[in-house]
Structures are given as structure tokens and as C-alpha cells.
Design a protein that fits this description.
single chain, 119 residues, mainly alpha, Arc Repressor Mutant, subunit A, 6 helices
Length: 119
């Protein structure tokens, strides 16, 4: 079963993978050293953990995702709405839209998204 939870540092590491995949585990370790200040061993430890969670794979030293960034964050968003708003998307949208005014283009795009959800 895929575990859809990441800490802040794991999330930054996962973003490196999603942005650059496929990449060798060695390249990943070098990127993590440059961007996160990690030692190689730390990168391999976190990579192993994320592979065990079912998010990525490291096959023949090539790292790729098993879950796309979009799918990962969509799942997290669904969980947030479920836990915080009893699964009510209208309640979430009402709360989300209270503090900001949206342009006509943004509102139109949201309408298109909602229209596409009709069954």
C-alpha cells in the first residue's frame, strides 16, 4: 500500500526526483547534496524509505516514480478535504475562497473544472 505522507524534507527530495526523473541514484545523491546539503548516505536512506512506501523505485540504479507528483498531491488534497471538511468540497471551496478575490479568468477556469465533474 502506498503511503501518501511526506515530511517537509522528504517532500523536497521527492520533488527533485519528480522534476528530473528518470535519473541515476548517483545523480540524485549529487543533486540532494547541492540542493539540500545532504551526504550521499542520507540520500540513499531517504530514497530507500520512499521506495518502501511505494512512491518511487530504484531499479538498476535508475530512480523513477511509481506515483506522479500530480497523483500524490491530488490524494493529499482529497485526504485534507475528507479530514477537515467531512469530505465536502463545497465547504472547502467556501472556506478557501473567503480571503481572496479571483479574476474572471480564474473563476471561469474553476467553473470549467466543476462542469467537468458532472456525472
Amino acid at each position: 500500500m502506498i503511503e501518501y505522507k511526506l515530511g517537509e524534507i522528504e517532500s523536497r527530495f521527492a520533488d527533485i526526483i519528480w522534476t528530473h526523473e528518470p535519473l541515476s541514484s548517483g545523480e540524485l545523491a549529487k543533486m540532494a547534496e547541492k540542493e539540500l546539503g545532504w551526504k550521499e548516505s542520507t540520500s540513499y536512506t531517504i530514497l530507500k524509505r520512499l521506495c518502501q512506501r511505494g512512491l518511487f523505485q530504484n531499479e538498476k540504479r535508475t530512480v523513477t516514480s511509481l506515483v506522479s507528483r500530480e497523483d500524490f498531491y491530488a490524494h493529499q488534497s482529497e485526504e485534507f478535504v475528507e479530514q477537515t471538511f467531512d469530505g465536502s468540497l463545497p465547504a472547502f471551496l467556501a472556506a478557501f475562497s473567503k480571503r481572496k478575490k479571483y479574476t474572471e479568468e480564474e473563476v471561469e477556469r474553476m467553473k470549467q473544472i466543476l462542469d467537468s465533474m458532472r456525472g
